[in-house]
Protein backbone atom coordinates (compact mmCIF):
# COMPACT_ATOMS: atom_id res chain seq x y z
CA UNK A 1 0.00 0.00 0.00
CA UNK A 2 1.26 3.47 -0.93
CA UNK A 3 0.39 6.81 0.59
CA UNK A 4 -1.11 9.63 -1.43
CA UNK A 5 2.35 10.63 -2.68
CA UNK A 6 2.97 7.19 -4.07
CA UNK A 7 5.56 6.15 -1.42
CA UNK A 8 5.34 2.94 0.54
CA UNK A 9 5.45 3.20 4.37
CA UNK A 10 8.88 1.55 4.40
CA UNK A 11 10.25 4.16 2.04
CA UNK A 12 8.88 6.98 4.18
CA UNK A 13 10.64 5.59 7.25
CA UNK A 14 13.93 5.29 5.37
CA UNK A 15 13.67 8.90 4.22
CA UNK A 16 12.94 10.13 7.76
CA UNK A 17 15.87 8.17 9.19
CA UNK A 18 18.11 9.56 6.47
CA UNK A 19 17.05 13.12 7.31
CA UNK A 20 17.72 12.59 11.03
CA UNK A 21 21.17 11.11 10.33
CA UNK A 22 21.97 14.00 8.01
CA UNK A 23 20.99 16.55 10.64
CA UNK A 24 23.07 14.83 13.34
CA UNK A 25 26.15 14.70 11.09
CA UNK A 26 25.67 18.33 10.04
CA UNK A 27 25.41 19.51 13.65
CA UNK A 28 28.54 17.52 14.60
CA UNK A 29 30.51 18.98 11.69
CA UNK A 30 29.45 22.53 12.58
CA UNK A 31 30.46 22.00 16.21
CA UNK A 32 33.80 20.54 15.12
CA UNK A 33 34.41 23.52 12.85
CA UNK A 34 33.53 26.02 15.56
CA UNK A 35 35.94 24.47 18.03
CA UNK A 36 38.76 23.62 15.65
CA UNK A 37 42.15 24.55 17.06
CA UNK A 38 41.00 24.20 20.66
CA UNK A 39 42.18 21.15 22.53
CA UNK A 40 40.86 21.62 26.05
CA UNK A 41 42.47 19.51 28.72
CA UNK A 42 40.38 19.48 31.89
CA UNK A 43 43.47 19.09 34.04
CA UNK A 44 45.10 22.28 32.78
CA UNK A 45 41.87 24.28 33.06
CA UNK A 46 41.44 23.93 36.81
CA UNK A 47 41.25 27.17 38.81
CA UNK A 48 44.61 26.40 40.39
CA UNK A 49 46.32 25.78 37.06
CA UNK A 50 44.88 28.91 35.47
CA UNK A 51 45.84 31.03 38.48
CA UNK A 52 49.37 29.66 38.32
CA UNK A 53 49.73 30.60 34.66
CA UNK A 54 48.31 34.07 35.24
CA UNK A 55 50.69 34.78 38.12
CA UNK A 56 53.24 37.44 37.12
CA UNK A 57 56.79 36.22 36.67
CA UNK A 58 58.85 36.88 39.75
CA UNK A 59 55.91 37.47 42.06
CA UNK A 60 56.96 34.56 44.23
CA UNK A 61 59.26 35.22 47.17
CA UNK A 62 62.72 33.70 46.91
CA UNK A 63 63.04 33.18 50.69
CA UNK A 64 62.94 35.01 54.01
CA UNK A 65 66.68 35.64 53.87
CA UNK A 66 67.72 39.31 53.78
CA UNK A 67 67.85 40.83 50.29
CA UNK A 68 71.13 40.12 48.58
CA UNK A 69 71.90 37.11 50.77
CA UNK A 70 69.77 34.42 49.17
CA UNK A 71 71.58 31.36 47.87
CA UNK A 72 71.27 30.02 44.35
CA UNK A 73 69.07 27.19 45.56
CA UNK A 74 66.77 29.59 47.42
CA UNK A 75 66.40 31.84 44.39
CA UNK A 76 65.79 28.86 42.10
CA UNK A 77 63.13 27.33 44.36
CA UNK A 78 61.41 30.65 44.98
CA UNK A 79 61.58 32.22 41.51
CA UNK A 80 63.25 30.32 38.69
CA UNK A 81 61.43 27.02 39.22
CA UNK A 82 58.24 28.49 37.71
CA UNK A 83 59.80 28.17 34.25
CA UNK A 84 62.97 26.11 34.64
CA UNK A 85 61.20 23.44 36.68
CA UNK A 86 59.22 22.28 33.64
CA UNK A 87 61.04 23.91 30.74
CA UNK A 88 58.25 26.42 30.17
CA UNK A 89 58.53 28.80 27.19
CA UNK A 90 61.80 27.29 26.04
CA UNK A 91 63.60 27.66 29.38
CA UNK A 92 66.26 24.96 29.86
CA UNK A 93 64.80 22.48 32.34
CA UNK A 94 66.58 22.04 35.66
CA UNK A 95 69.00 19.12 35.47
CA UNK A 96 68.58 18.67 31.70
CA UNK A 97 72.19 18.24 30.56
CA UNK A 98 71.27 18.37 26.88
CA UNK A 99 69.32 21.64 27.19
CA UNK A 100 71.96 23.27 29.38
CA UNK A 101 74.98 21.93 27.49
CA UNK A 102 74.90 24.46 24.66
CA UNK A 103 74.25 27.28 27.09
CA UNK A 104 77.06 26.29 29.44
CA UNK A 105 79.38 26.17 26.44
CA UNK A 106 78.77 29.90 25.86
CA UNK A 107 80.48 30.63 29.16
CA UNK A 108 79.68 32.21 32.48
CA UNK A 109 79.68 35.81 31.27
CA UNK A 110 77.13 35.17 28.52
CA UNK A 111 74.87 33.11 30.79
CA UNK A 112 74.80 35.72 33.53
CA UNK A 113 74.33 38.54 31.04
CA UNK A 114 71.23 36.87 29.62
CA UNK A 115 69.88 36.21 33.12
CA UNK A 116 70.45 39.78 34.29
CA UNK A 117 69.26 41.57 31.15
CA UNK A 118 66.67 39.09 29.90
CA UNK A 119 66.72 36.82 26.87
CA UNK A 120 63.94 35.69 24.49
CA UNK A 121 60.82 35.02 26.63
CA UNK A 122 62.67 35.54 29.93
CA UNK A 123 62.52 39.08 31.38
CA UNK A 124 65.47 40.64 33.19
CA UNK A 125 66.23 38.72 36.40
CA UNK A 126 63.37 36.38 35.59
CA UNK A 127 60.98 39.19 36.45
CA UNK A 128 62.15 39.34 40.09
CA UNK A 129 63.54 42.87 40.04
CA UNK A 130 64.25 42.82 43.79
CA UNK A 131 67.00 40.24 43.32
CA UNK A 132 70.54 41.51 43.49
CA UNK A 133 72.92 40.76 40.63
CA UNK A 134 74.83 38.31 42.81
CA UNK A 135 71.63 36.47 43.74
CA UNK A 136 70.80 36.03 40.06
CA UNK A 137 74.33 34.80 39.39
CA UNK A 138 74.07 32.30 42.24
CA UNK A 139 70.85 30.94 40.72
CA UNK A 140 72.54 30.64 37.32
CA UNK A 141 75.46 28.75 38.89
CA UNK A 142 73.09 26.49 40.83
CA UNK A 143 71.05 25.58 37.75
CA UNK A 144 74.08 25.26 35.49
CA UNK A 145 75.89 23.01 37.94
CA UNK A 146 72.84 20.73 38.17
CA UNK A 147 73.40 19.97 34.50
CA UNK A 148 77.16 19.49 34.50
CA UNK A 149 78.48 23.03 34.89
CA UNK A 150 81.44 23.87 37.09
CA UNK A 151 80.50 27.38 38.15
CA UNK A 152 81.22 28.98 41.53
CA UNK A 153 78.38 30.90 43.18
CA UNK A 154 79.26 34.44 44.33
CA UNK A 155 79.68 34.20 48.13
CA UNK A 156 76.73 35.23 50.28
CA UNK A 157 77.54 38.47 52.05
CA UNK A 158 80.23 39.50 49.56
CA UNK A 159 83.95 39.26 50.24
CA UNK A 160 83.37 38.80 53.96
CA UNK A 161 81.34 35.64 53.40
CA UNK A 162 79.28 34.29 56.28
CA UNK A 163 80.95 36.56 58.83
CA UNK A 164 79.94 39.64 56.89
CA UNK A 165 76.42 38.29 56.42
CA UNK A 166 76.06 37.98 60.19
CA UNK A 167 77.11 41.61 60.76
CA UNK A 168 73.94 43.67 61.48
CA UNK A 169 75.47 46.68 59.71
CA UNK A 170 75.96 44.62 56.54
CA UNK A 171 72.45 43.17 56.78
CA UNK A 172 71.00 46.64 57.37
CA UNK A 173 72.76 48.09 54.35
CA UNK A 174 71.61 45.21 52.15
CA UNK A 175 68.00 45.72 53.19
CA UNK A 176 68.25 49.49 52.80
CA UNK A 177 69.77 49.19 49.31
CA UNK A 178 67.11 46.70 48.20
CA UNK A 179 63.96 48.03 49.90
CA UNK A 180 64.21 51.21 51.98
CA UNK A 181 66.17 53.23 49.42
CA UNK A 182 63.08 53.51 47.21
CA UNK A 183 61.61 56.14 49.56
CA UNK A 184 64.30 57.16 52.04
CA UNK A 185 66.96 58.03 49.45
CA UNK A 186 64.92 60.99 48.18
CA UNK A 187 62.48 61.47 51.07
CA UNK A 188 59.47 60.34 49.05
CA UNK A 189 55.99 60.54 50.64
CA UNK A 190 57.36 62.18 53.79
CA UNK A 191 59.95 59.48 54.55
CA UNK A 192 62.94 60.91 56.48
CA UNK A 193 65.70 61.22 53.94
CA UNK A 194 68.82 59.10 54.40
CA UNK A 195 71.50 61.23 56.09
CA UNK A 196 69.08 64.04 57.04
CA UNK A 197 69.97 64.64 60.70
CA UNK A 198 67.10 67.06 61.37
CA UNK A 199 64.43 64.79 59.91
CA UNK A 200 65.64 61.76 61.84
CA UNK A 201 66.18 63.67 65.10
CA UNK A 202 62.47 64.48 65.31
CA UNK A 203 61.50 60.85 64.80
CA UNK A 204 64.05 59.53 67.27
CA UNK A 205 62.73 61.54 70.22
CA UNK A 206 60.59 58.59 71.48
CA UNK A 207 63.65 56.34 71.22
CA UNK A 208 64.96 53.81 68.70
CA UNK A 209 62.78 50.95 69.97
CA UNK A 210 59.64 52.99 69.36
CA UNK A 211 60.80 53.95 65.88
CA UNK A 212 61.35 50.27 65.07
CA UNK A 213 57.89 49.33 66.42
CA UNK A 214 56.24 52.00 64.30
CA UNK A 215 58.16 50.85 61.25
CA UNK A 216 57.16 47.23 61.79
CA UNK A 217 53.47 48.19 61.91
CA UNK A 218 53.71 50.80 59.16
CA UNK A 219 52.75 54.47 59.32
CA UNK A 220 50.94 56.78 56.90
CA UNK A 221 52.17 56.00 53.38
CA UNK A 222 54.71 53.45 54.62
CA UNK A 223 53.50 49.82 54.64
CA UNK A 224 54.49 47.37 57.38
CA UNK A 225 58.29 47.07 57.43
CA UNK A 226 58.36 49.28 54.37
CA UNK A 227 57.35 46.24 52.33
CA UNK A 228 60.23 44.09 53.60
CA UNK A 229 59.18 40.46 54.10
CA UNK A 230 62.00 39.25 56.34
CA UNK A 231 62.18 39.04 60.13
CA UNK A 232 61.65 41.92 62.58
CA UNK A 233 65.29 41.61 63.69
CA UNK A 234 66.50 42.07 60.11
CA UNK A 235 64.20 45.04 59.64
CA UNK A 236 65.60 46.60 62.83
CA UNK A 237 69.09 46.35 61.38
CA UNK A 238 67.94 48.43 58.41
CA UNK A 239 66.49 51.09 60.72
CA UNK A 240 69.71 51.16 62.73
CA UNK A 241 71.72 51.52 59.53
CA UNK A 242 69.68 54.56 58.48
CA UNK A 243 69.78 56.09 61.96
CA UNK A 244 73.52 55.61 62.35
CA UNK A 245 74.10 57.35 59.03
CA UNK A 246 71.89 60.25 59.98
CA UNK A 247 73.46 61.34 63.26
UniProtKB/TrEMBL annotation:
Residues 67-147, 167-246 form the Cytochrome c domain. Signal peptide: none annotated. Keywords: Electron transport, Heme, Iron, Membrane, Metal-binding, Transmembrane, Transmembrane helix, Transport. InterPro entries: Cyt_c-like_dom (IPR009056), Cyt_c-like_dom_sf (IPR036909), Cyt_CIE (IPR002323). Pfam families: Cytochrome_CBB3. The chain crosses the membrane at residues 12-31. PROSITE patterns: CYTC. One of its GO terms (molecular function) is iron ion binding. It comes from the Bacteria. This is Cytochrome c5 family protein. The lineage of its organism: Bacteria, Pseudomonadati, Pseudomonadota, Betaproteobacteria, Neisseriales.
